[in-house]
Amino acid sequence: xxxxxxxxxxxxxxxxxxxxxxxxxxxxxxxxxxxxxxxxxxxxxxxxxxxxxxxxxxxxxxxxxxxxxxxxxxxxxxxxxxxxxxxxxxxxxxxxxxxxxxxxxxxxxxxxxxxxxxxxxxxxxxxxxxxxxxxxxxxxxxxxxxxxxxxxxxxxxxxxxxxxxxxxxxxxxxxxxxxxxxxxxxxxxxxxxxxxxxxxxxxxxxxxxxxxxxxxxxxxxxxxxxxxxxxxxxxxxxxxxxxxxxxxxxxxxxxxxxxxxxxxxxxxxxxxxxxxxxxxxxxxxxxxxxxxxxxxxxxxxxxxxxxxxxxxxxxxxxxxxxxxxx
Length: 326
Known about the structure:
Layout: E1 12-16, H1 45-57, E2 62-66, H2 76-83, E3 89-94, H3 103-108, E4 113-117, H4 123-130, H5 135-147, E5 151-158, H6 167-176, E6 179-185, H7 202-210, E7 216-217, E8 226-230, E9 237-241, E10 254-257, E11 262-264, E12 273-274, H8 275-280, H9 286-294, H10 321-324
Parallel strand pairs: 1-2, 1-10, 2-3, 3-4, 4-5, 5-6, 6-9
Antiparallel strand pairs: 7-8, 8-9, 10-11, 11-12
């Protein structure tokens, strides 16, 4: 088992396949023109498989593939099929626009649960956020998954003054469809123009929802990052990921591998461990993994606290969201 100095067992690995994306969401990848990592510096399919096997041998039982947008990678299908042979729950986070092209691969790889990013239900606002005219394709692909009994979580980054007025529109969606909406507090990353006054908090979200709906809390698992709820009679559920106002670091079980093979022990950590270079040199990777986890901070990468109102984005030393992998 991979255990840190706060006795947190780490059995969940998130692997970024690429820092490339076919959208340009400002809170993730600010610039339209962006220097992507050269293919030679990315983990190759066999390297991803090798590293994943090492983590599994040391207790990892869940792997999530992320990006950028993982499905823009040409060998994404091959990677999914390779990892599906491991004794893990394999999941995927995607912007959803290419899901119809990978539908059969998802079934073949036994990927039954997906997170799809969708910050608005309005096509014009979708264009504003993503700088791409693809709302209908994403929405149709979510419906395709639902019709075929996939477990679909919709990730909504809530930003004050941008889409907070749509919260109850998303709740209404859960009435007729078994969709699981997850509202995410806006988080600071390099270049995403984060300011504290754009954060719409967990409690603010619940206040908006209770103006229209009565809801009940759901029983959460120990490692859940989301606080779950259900409106009685609705087919779906909703949840809030309260990273900024009520962090859940005490039960964190997550590790991350960036697309260029760097291990991050926390989404907000300012330090990384280069596993890919070690693997390519034939060096031992396992000690590096344990060293990384032993140095993990108690909360929020050791960079800030839940008192985010006094936080300045320029004080956070980290990558942009797209190069971390979510």
